[in-house]
Amino acid sequence: MAAASSSFTAHIIGSTVPEFSRNPRNGAPFSVRISSSSNSPTTRDELAEGPYCIYVGPIETASKETLEALYRQARDAYYSGDPLIVDDMFDRVELKLRWYGSKCVVKYPRCSLRRQSTYADAEEDLSQVFALASIWILFLAFGSSACLVPVVYTVGLAYQEAFNPGFSYINQAFAFSMLNAILFMALGSVIGYPIASASVKVLEGLWRNDLVALKGACPNCGEEVFAFVKSSQSNNSPHRANCHVCECLLEFRTKFEAL
């Protein structure tokens, strides 16, 4: 992976759920103190036990079970009006759980009253990236073969002629073969070089995450949809696609953060 990368949030029709980065940020350890406020008298057992803390440590090394427990408690506390952690920390925990593939952070299509539209979350689809990379690797092999095979053939003819006796009719046949080999090499370069060059550019883009494959549920029918989005796109120019089932127009909106 390249040294410089970017993390982004991806969504369909205006989602705002963060997507994970392949270069996770180092986070400082933190603990969450959970306490309850009540008007009832405190018993001796409660006083002896006191408030308790959940120690998570660095988010990047925390286990899935620990983060899920913290996520549920923080979410319930937020809905009750007494948040436990700041929004940025909550987003980082949610982002890490998405990287783990946790089911507790899955969000389904929902409505936005402000935008008057439905939206759903999108996530990176590595299987589509690997499938696209496999296709372009085949194109790279074909283009490289078209360039290299004529060169190897021409070099072989020249090497063979170097050990042949110098009869005139052999020299004439060799000259004719060399002419055909040079034409074959030129044709192979014209065809193979553009294919190989384009394949290398696409594979480099996939390696640097310049082209990202996304998948998510269609907000209209709920079927899974796919799209390839360039990481250079901004929020003002969303990627548009159509659902292959209900043919509804979809917009993939992304938000990028430089690391």
TrEMBL record:
GO cellular component: chloroplast thylakoid membrane
Gene Ontology BP, a term: photosynthetic electron transport in photosystem I
Gene Ontology MF terms: oxidoreductase activity, acting on iron-sulfur proteins as donors
Bilayer-crossing regions: 129-153, 173-196
Name used for this protein in its record: PGR5-like protein 1A, chloroplastic
Coiled-coil intervals: none
Species whose genome carries this gene: Prunus armeniaca (Apricot)
Record keywords: Membrane, Transmembrane, Transmembrane helix
Signal peptide: none
